[in-house]
Write a structure and sequence with these properties.
36% of the residues lie in helices and 17% in strands. The chain contains 2 helices and 3 strands, in the order E-E-E-H-H. The chain has one domain. Strands 1-2-3 form a 3-stranded antiparallel β-sheet, covered by helices on one side. With 77 residues, it is an alpha+beta fold. The termini are far apart. Strand 1 and strand 2 form a beta hairpin.
Length: 77
């Protein structure tokens, strides 16, 4: 099974099965402020977010311990 990262007509970034037009598995929506700050790198950031999520999901499914970000703040500069 292959997955693809696509940009939807409304500007959201989505992950869906490559062989299907079903609803996306997940959707990332950036605020207008984040879009302005990230500019062309917005899709790169979305890809990194999806990659990190897939890695953690794989670790959870295999029973591995994961490093969580509990008690940490994420700040976009």
């Amino acid at each position: 099974m292959y997955w693809e990262i696509i940009e939807l007509a409304n500007g959201e970034v989505a992950l869906r099965r490559a062989d299907s037009n079903d609803a996306p598995l997940l959707v990332i929506r950036f605020s207008d402020e984040a879009k302005e700050r990230l500019k062309e790198q917005r899709l790169d950031v979305a890809r990194a977010m999806i990659s990190a999520g897939v890695q953690v999901a794989t670790e959870i499914e295999s029973g591995e311990e994961t490093d969580t970000m509990e008690d940490e703040e994420v700040i976009l500069h």
